[in-house]
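hey all, quick one before standup. I had two proteins in the batch that finished overnight and I want to keep them in one place so we stop losing track of which output belongs to which input. First protein below, input sequence then structure tokens straight from the run.
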Amino acid sequence: MLKLSRMTDYAVVALSALWRAAPQQKTAAQLAAETGLPEPSLAKILKTLARAGIVSSRRGVQGGYFLVRETGRSLSAKMIIEAMEGSIALTACIETPVKTECAIAACCPVQGRWSAVNAALCDVLDRVMLADMCTADVTEITERRAAHGG
């Protein structure tokens, strides 16, 4: 089963809340109260997203995390997933040299073919923006963009 981690799922929820609040900042405690997510997990997620340059933060008593609203229009699902989980690789042979990771590399009939599938998945994830996830039906958006070549 292909499944994102709970932390990535939480990251999208937190980013959605920050996008709706933009340009206002929120602390991890405020986001936890608004979303129902655990504060310790949110604190960890927000630090990861800040290191990736996805959110900005201010320190101090009046501190918190924020997302520039326009960032949500250019922040793709792929960017969020990669910030939280690393590069997207459906199989080990996409991520690492085949000879070192795969016991059947010498006789694999689909060796190198997963790259096209991985690229297609990444392309779709790159077309779905955070703003889209916050405002509309994602299926509708991807179908509309595909119909218009974008």
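OK second protein, same deal, sequence then tokens:
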Amino acid sequence: MIQMVSDALSLTGVVNLLLILAIIYIFNRMVLGPKRKAPGAGQHPLFGNLTINMPNMMCYLRFPLGGWIFCVFYFNALHTSFFAFTYHLSFALICLFDSLDGRFARKWDAVTEDGKSLDPAADKWVTFCLAVTAFMFGEFRWWALAIVFAREILSMLQRMRLRRRGEDASARWLGKIKTGVQFTVLYIILLRSGVLPETIVFEPVAKLFPANFILWGIILLAFSTVISVFPYFKSFSYVNDYTKSQFKSSDRAWYVVMIPNLFTIGNYLCGVTAVFFAMPEVEVDYRAFVCLFWVLAAAACDAFDGPLARKLNSHSDFGACLDSSTDLSTFGLATAVIIFLRFSAIKGGNSYLGIAVALLYFLYVHLRLARFTVRLQAHEDKSKKQDFEGLPSPTGACAALMAFTFFDNIFVLCGVIVAISFLMYSKLDFISHSNSIAHPLYRYFLIPISLSGFLMLNILIFQQPFVTSHFARELSVYFQICSWLLVVPVFIYILDGVRRTHFSS
């Protein structure tokens, strides 16, 4: 009997999902309309004179749909299969209208100034509804909710300021990615809440995810939310407008252009994973080494995306902007968060000194990236890789986290991290990783040692859950050896930067 009920529910879930997909498909075809024969203003065959207003109507419809999602969860009388189905349908329509309004406006020449304001406003409202609902009835964390609210309020105020000054206040591409990440993570959290009856096949699948995976998704949401607000501020303009003049966009196929971007995305995800393992609620042995490993993995991804783009001739504005925002996220924001969490763990509670050191570190990463962008855009021959002025941010991030594998005194750690921060914004001349291949010191000594340390750390990180307590002490020694194999090349790299600046002829 139980098996029959289970089969019936599964069949019902499949039918409901197919019904939602059919409604979405019909709406999509009907709203977009037939293929345009000529560019310019025109009238949709179904909407006629209302064509110009249809994108705005799709924005307006997202407001009641977002409110309805909250109501379905909040009112007990609506906790039925029918209303659960309307929740899934409402979410699907919100995503459809969010995608359709811009496509419709471009296709039928229906772009309006009101639409440019309505679209982000509708996104904010839906995000508010989903975030509050996920916090009240799901696993969404209070700090993530605070980040979402603070970001939306800050971006709204900054938009008003930009409009008063006559500057561009349209939605940025980072904001669009942020909205997609937010919707996906919040929807999965609500699927796992258990408040509504299981109506489509997604709920049982979402409940299979472990709680730690959801925490990782929440951290991903928080990082995409924070990074998306930076382009609204002039000092962070390199995050959004970086390299407009650096390279011509490639005319290669989209899948070729995406190859280096996959490494950039890997960089970003490694940074999020490093923060995940720094969280105190995540149980992990050798936490300092695990966090260091994921930042090293991010640095490895960062080392490959640029050379791949040049090798494949697959440059794009999107890839360049993604690269600069990812560097700020992983080697700036993520590393700063890890510094704060490690200081707090050593002290046994929230550390105000940790907050100050983390903010100082992030500030200097930002200043270094901004200066690097200015120098890169001013450089005439952009096909040739320049050396660095100041310690590169990936090296600085790795060096800062290496300190936690050697010291547990917060004042010593404070001095080391502050020194690294100053080195990143210094005038010292550091050789780039592309140019270092031709240098014997790097090619035959420093690079092999660094790779050996990273590969050894790689093996130990994924082996350590299976090591018995009998070998725990030996494993700790092996981790320390990895740290020495990594910190020695970094120290020599810094000394070489001093030599190249002050002692080379």
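Flagging for whoever picks this up: The longest helix spans residues 2-32. The chain has two domains: 2-232, 235-427.
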